[in-house]
Amino acid sequence: MTADSLRALSTADGGPDPEASAICTGCHAVGALDLEIEARVTARLERDAWMWRFRLVAIETLMLAALVAAAGLTLGQPVMVVLRAALIVGATCFASGLLLLSLSAGTARLLTRVRRWRHR
Fold it and tell me: pLDDT tens digit string along 80-92?
């Protein structure tokens, strides 16, 4: 700020201008509102991202189980053996996908806490 603008913000007795203080308080309120909105949007996007990842795991599970079933039936294997193999592969794929989802979510939370701790 220039000297003229600083003089304009102060009153004749040298104290701060009440109107300027009200403006600055309003700026802080807007900043707090922006931070609140940003926090809510971040939380919603994190939930949405987790749901999309879960959907991808589910789709991959179904595709892999269907691929095993199709390959087994194409090779002329007994139906019960093929269904059992497809079920085992699908369950294993789903379990590993959920494990990866939980590990990535846990790592993201840990990194968030570390960043907050470093900025204190």
Answer: 999 999 999 999 9
pLDDT of 69 reads 97
- Residue 59: which residues within 8 A CB-CB, separation 6 or more? none
Assess contact for 85 and 41: CB atoms under 8 A.
no
Tens of pLDDT, residue by residue over 91-117, are: 999 999 999 999 988 898 899 889 888
- Whole-model pTM? 0.62
Give Cβ neighbours of residue 50 (< 8 Å, ≥ 6 apart). 101, 105
Enumerate the domain spans of the chain: 14-118
- Which one-letter DSSP state was computed for residue 14? S
Provide the phi-psi class of 14: left if phi over 0, else alpha when psi is between -120 and 50, else beta. left
Query: For the chain, what is the largest distance between any 2 Cα atoms, rounded to a whole number of angstroms?
Result: 97
Helix axes 79-118, 18-74, angle to 10 degrees: 160
Q: Of 94, 106, 115, which is closest to residue 46 (Cα–Cα)? A: 106
As beta bridge partners, residue 10 has 16
